Amino acid sequence: MPEAENPFASWAIVDLMGKIRLGGYATEETHFGQSMLRLDVPDGTGELRTRYFGGGAIYSVSPCSEELARWVAKGADPAPVKRWELPAPDHDDPDDDDDQQALLVGPEFD
């Protein structure tokens, strides 16, 4: 039996891979030849940030009230992926130099 056309559009709580929970307005869109979840996540200023997720990343979608979705969104960081770097080593600290030497002069390098 063919699947009925019933596009999803609702405020929802979305769990991704069982590890990330976001709240926002969820709709289904097709991109790159695939159905994707479009989630418009409210940020702290009231603006909506759009995020797209493929079906394999979605653990669950729970339709809910706008109030509840916005509450869940407050606890999430809807910002795009950020570059993450370790702080530069403190070259004045002799312990840092010893650690670097230990990495280069271990038993396998002797």
Tell me about this structure.
The chain has helices spanning 66-74, 94-104, and strands at 9-16, 20-31, 34-42, 48-54, 58-63. With 110 residues, it is of the alpha+beta class. The protein has a five-stranded antiparallel beta sheet. The longest helix has 11 residues, at 94-104. It starts with 8 loop residues before the first strand and ends in a 6-residue tail after the last helix.
SSE string, helices as H and strands as E: EEEEEHH
Provide the β-strand percentage band.
Answer: 35-45%
Number of helices: 2
Radius of gyration: 22 Å
Secondary-structure content class:
alpha+beta
Oligomer: single chain
DSSP strand count: 5
**Uncertain ranges:** 102-106
What's the average pLDDT? 77
Strand neighbour order, sheet with most strands:
4-3-2-1-5
* Gross geometry: extended
Helix % is: 10-25%
Key words describing this protein structure:
single chain; 110 residues; alpha+beta; five-stranded antiparallel beta sheet; 5 strands; 38% strand
Describe the secondary structure blueprint for this structure.
Blueprint lengths: L8 E8 L3 E12 L2 E9 L5 E7 L3 E6 L2 H9 L19 H11 L6
Antiparallel strand pairs: 1-2, 1-5, 2-3, 3-4
Question: Can you summarize this structure?
Answer:
The chain has 110 residues and is α+β, with helices and mostly antiparallel strands.
